[in-house]
Design a protein that fits this description.
The longest helix is centred in the last third of the chain and has 22 residues. The strands form 3 sheets. Strands 2-8-7-6-5-3-4 form a 7-stranded mixed beta sheet, with helices on both faces. A 4-stranded antiparallel beta sheet has the order 9-10-13-12. A two-stranded parallel ribbon has the order 1-11. It has 2 domains: 134 residues, Alpha-Beta Complex (Aspartate Aminotransferase, domain 1); 235 residues, Type I PLP-dependent aspartate aminotransferase-like (Major domain) (Aspartate Aminotransferase, domain 2). Helix content is 40%, strand content 14%. It is an alpha/beta fold. Helix 5 crosses helix 9.
Length: 394
């Protein structure tokens, strides 16, 4: 029997990005301010927690249906159908273990070796590793200097091997919320090129100022090509519950559901019952948390403003600030991240989100106000020290 061949470089390519992996594995020493995580700083609302307890006491402790609790799928279908260009029914909803599993199932279901997938640069770091695992090829799409969509740049990256486009809106890491005009222009390109579009919209309820969220499933001539992914994690502070969903026309949902069944089987049933309570119960908790994030956003922006050589993208959605530092420092994003960690604050290197993230850092404002203020002061002081050492303005 021939020996099995092992290709370390191929294995590394099919795994997660090493820099992202290292950042996720940071073990915090005492006193380090954690501004690196995408985890809500609020507790899951009590009526949602109560619903899970009641479900367990009520006997929801056996196998649920493979695609999810029928009542939850119907509630999701009704919610997603509001304002959409087409109506969805419960058979077009798949309940997943968070949005991450939904994204994995969708990408795995449709991609073959050699296919190309268009990813805006920068974008959420989960997509490219999964694309590579399938043998498909991530193709970076350059954005404008202020991280807006450019339909001409997008169209220029389409080839005869392009199968799918991924959109994250509101965007992680930039905090940009795309306008109706941008969404319409993206839809035109996708329809013209006959592309599937995977739309990740987990931050859709965390909006600030005048920002308004437009979904791709609201665009009539594209709705049948969109795989819509969302989650309870950010809106309802349920990251640890692992509850998300995929919504798509039946021909698109079927292969995704097959991958889900073969990899996950079912999602924890009491958690699904809590999801029903989240969607059908009082929504004042969502607005309260959104307002709390807005106060934290203002505190972080104020704490970072006026640092010489630093430029900020003011976030319109989500809970991240994307920060550009002075390139004359002569340091990479990963090196600056390391310096800041040594100084006492943990954040993320922009290069975790694509090549365009070099020279940028991502900070979260999902933290206690006192920690945000302390973290911003550490960032300010560290950049002043780096500027002085490089001979730049302090």
């Amino acid at each position: 029997m021939p020996a099995l061949a092992f290709n370390p470089s191929a294995a590394a390519q099919r795994g997660t990005d090493a820099e992202r992996d290292a950042s996720l594995a940071v073990v915090h020493r005492s006193g380090v301010v954690a501004l690196h995580k995408g985890d809500p700083c609020f507790a899951t609302p009590e009526h949602i927690r109560a619903a899970e307890r009641e479900a367990m006491e009520g006997g929801y402790t056996h196998y649920p249906e493979l695609r999810g609790d029928p009542e939850l799928r119907q509630v999701i279908a009704d919610e997603v159908s509001k304002g959409a260009a087409r109506s969805y029914d419960a058979e077009e909803v798949l309940v997943t273990a968070g949005a991450t599993q939904g994204l994995y199932c969708a990408l795995t279901a449709f991609l073959d070796p050699g296919d190309e997938v268009l990813l805006f640069d920068p974008t959420f770091s989960h997509y490219a590793p999964v694309v590579r695992q399938t043998g498909a090829v991530p193709v970076s799409v350059e954005m404008t200097p202020d991280f807006r969509l450019d339909p001409e740049r997008l169209l220029s990256r389409v080839s005869d091997r392009t199968k799918l486009l991924v959109l994250n809106n509101p965007a992680n890491p930039t905090g940009v919320v795309f306008t109706p005009e941008e969404i319409a222009s993206l839809a035109d390109v996708a329809a013209r090129a006959n592309l599937l579009v995977l739309s990740d919209e987990v931050y859709d309820r965390l909006l600030f100022g005048a920002a308004r969220h437009t979904r791709l499933i609201d665009v009539p001539h594209l709705a049948d090509q969109v795989i819509y992914v969302n989650s309870f994690s950010k809106t309802y502070a349920m990251t640890g519950w692992r509850l998300g969903h995929v919504v798509a026309p039946r021909p698109l949902l079927e292969p995704i559901a097959t991958i889900h069944t073969n990899s996950m089987s079912q999602v924890h049933w009491p958690t699904q019952r809590a999801g029903i309570a989240a969607l059908t119960g009082p929504q004042d908790c969502v607005e309260s948390m959104r307002a709390g994030y807005d106060r934290r956003r203002a505190a972080l922006l104020a704490g970072l403003s006026g640092i010489p050589g630093v430029r900020l993208v003011e976030p319109q959605g989500g809970f991240y600030v994307f920060l550009r530092f002075d390139p004359t420092l002569g340091l990479s994003s990963a090196e600056v991240r390391s310096r800041l960690y040594d100084a006492g604050v943990a954040l993320r290197s922009g290069t975790e989100y694509g090549p365009a993230g070099e020279g940028w850092l991502r900070l979260t404002f999902s933290a206690e106000l006192s920690e945000i203020e302390r973290g911003a002061e550490i960032v300010r002081h560290t950049f002043q020290e780096l500027a002085a050492a490089s001979g730049g303005p302090a």
